[in-house]
Amino acid sequence: MVHEGQGGYSGPPQHGTGGWGSFPPPPPGPVPPPAPAHFSAPHPQAQPGPSVSTILSLVCNILALCGCYGALPALVGTVLSIIAMTQARTDPDSARKLTVGAWICFGVALVFLVVTVVLYLVYGAVLLGLGSSGSSSYYY
């Protein structure tokens, strides 16, 4: 048998506010209203990363570099794109200028490609013209 004060459960006391003790005292002073939801926690500013234009200029310059036409401008454009990607978070204005330079290098590489294709077509037309305009001395 367990006596009061010696442990065990003896049930709620039969006096006071219903048996489980008194209510806690109210907080001192007025309670501030809750903050509005849109001001509750500031969101950290998103760090700007490399732009889509920078990534596309890198891919296009690498493809132009693999095509071997205008390899020097494509190499310069690839390097400029890589530098722009690394500077995108620290200096976005400089990264934007480097990206424009990389696109210009890609344009120069494309001009080299077009000039090369046109020269091949002209050279092929000249060779075909020389071969077909000769006399029929091959046949007796």
Question: What's the structural blueprint in terms of helices and strands?
Answer:
Layout (H helix, E strand, L loop, with lengths): L51 H16 L3 H17 L4 H41 L8
Helix pairs in contact: 1-2, 1-3, 2-3
Would you write up a description of this structure?
- With 140 residues, the protein is mostly helical.
- The protein has a domain at 52-129.
- The chain has 3 helices and no strands.
- It has helices at 52-67, 71-87, 92-132.
Largest sheet: none
Mean pLDDT, nearest integer? 79
**Structural class per helix/strand content?**
mainly alpha
| DSSP summary, beta strand count | 0
| Net shape | rod-shaped
Oligomer: single chain
In percent terms, what proportion of residues is strand?
A: under 5%
Termini gap? 138 Å
What's the tally of helices?
A: 3
Which spans of ≥5 residues are poorly predicted at pLDDT below 50?
A: none
Q: What is the gyration radius calculated from CA atoms?
A: 41 Å
Run of helices and strands? HHH
Helix content: 40-55%
Short description:
This protein is 53% helix and 0% strand. The chain is mainly α.
